[in-house]
Amino acid sequence: MNDVLVARLITFLETGTPPEGLFAPDAFCDLTLPQWRLQARGVEDLIVLRKGGHPAPGTVARHRVDPTPKGFVIEVEERWEQDGRHWYCRELIRADIEADTIARLSVYCTGDWDEAQQRRHAEEVTLLEP
């Protein structure tokens, strides 16, 4: 597994700006949301796709990484503030590595939870683990 690429991907998720050497020039991303699917090819389009969904910087509050034969899978929990509101989402991302860069991403997102959804979830569900 490539710890440098994992750290760079987390930086990209938190800032919306990819560190040098993170993506292959023609990197491809396939993003699946609860009721939508989007794709991007090339670094600039990946940035547009990311900032379209998460325009504000945030934090990856929690993550777990598992190696795969072609790269890694990372599970992340993200939090950010936008327009004075606090947001949350969980994502599972499969990253395929070629030539020490991420060449392909498959992203599965829970969708973005605003404060009301987070509050409703906390009132209705007791999680067994964080």
Short description:
The chain is of the alpha+beta class.
Provide the helix percentage.
25-40%
Termini separation: 25 Å
User: How does the major sheet shape up?
Assistant: 6 strands, mixed
The whole-number mean of residue pLDDT values reads 95
What is the H/E order? HEEHEEEEH
Task: Please identify, by name, the CATH architecture.
Answer: Roll
Strand content is over 45%
Strand order of the largest sheet: 2-1-6-5-4-3
Rounded Rg: 15 Å
Characterization of this structure:
Helix content is 26%, strand content 48%. A six-stranded mixed sheet has the order 2-1-6-5-4-3, covered by helices on one side. The protein has helices at residues 3-15, 43-53, 115-124; strands at 23-33, 36-41, 58-68, 71-82, 85-98, 101-109. It has one domain: Roll (Nuclear Transport Factor 2, Chain: A), CATH 3.10.450. It starts with a helix and ends in a 6-residue tail after the last helix. With 130 residues, it is α+β, with helices and mostly antiparallel strands.
